[in-house]
Amino acid sequence: MTSARPSRNGTGSASSSGSSKIPADRALWLRGVGWIRRNLPRREQFEKNRWLRPVAHRVLAPALWRFTRRSVPRGVALGMATGILAPVAQIVLSAFLALPFRANIPTAALTTFITNPFTTPAIWLLAYWLGGWVLHFDAAVPGHPISAKVGAHMGWLHWLLAEAGPATIVGLILLAAIGAVIGHVAATIGWRLWIARKWRRRHHGKS
After folding, report:
1. pLDDT of residue 54
2. Which stretches are tagged as biased composition: Low complexity (predicted)?
3. 127 near 172, Cβ under 8 Å?
């Protein structure tokens, strides 16, 4: 007859869940890292892109592919903006805009995946609600500056956003700006935490 081994906390269920949590978290982390590695753009892909051939020599500059504490947050912010505002060619557009902003191209291209068939409906619905809320207050301002501005550029925005209404247009612009700021701050904090973790591991001889 065998007896159950007592757990440290006196309850077997708690110890088993605690022991299984670490492998589950690690497996989730590894899946996330694997997805990033599979979808991270390669320089060869940009080199073969026919839309980028006129500026390929600049897009492939090593400085735009280095992961630094400044270029990565800029890449995340740029990817958030282009991912939300551009309905097509988001990766190509992010590569173009990475030149003047000196952003990391792989990070910018990868962040554009924030919009996908699963998230786009929710983003557009939120943009419509946010834009309607802003335009409601704009109606109380003499001259309706936001509405007038949108109306003046309705032809370009009509083509860009496939007949989206003024509220959705304003909402998308606001979401892109908010997402870029949040993405930049989150990437900056994440970079610092990652560097601090590397230094701690190196200090304890676990590098």
Report:
1. 76
2. 7-20
3. yes
Question: How far is CA 81 from each of CA 47, 115, 176, 177, 192, rounded to the nearest angstrom?
Answer: 23, 10, 5, 7, 23
Residue 171 in contact with residue 178, Cβ under 8 Å?
Answer: no
Any domain includes 27? no
Number of domains making up the chain: 1
Q: Is there a domain that residue 190 lies in?
A: yes
Q: List the structure tokens of 197.
A: 């973790």
Residue 177 lies in a domain: yes
pLDDT in the model for residue 21: 53
pTM beyond 0.85:
no
- CA-based R_g, the chain, Å: 23
- 3-state secondary structure at position 30: helix
Write the pLDDT tens digit of every residue in 156-165: 455 444 445 7
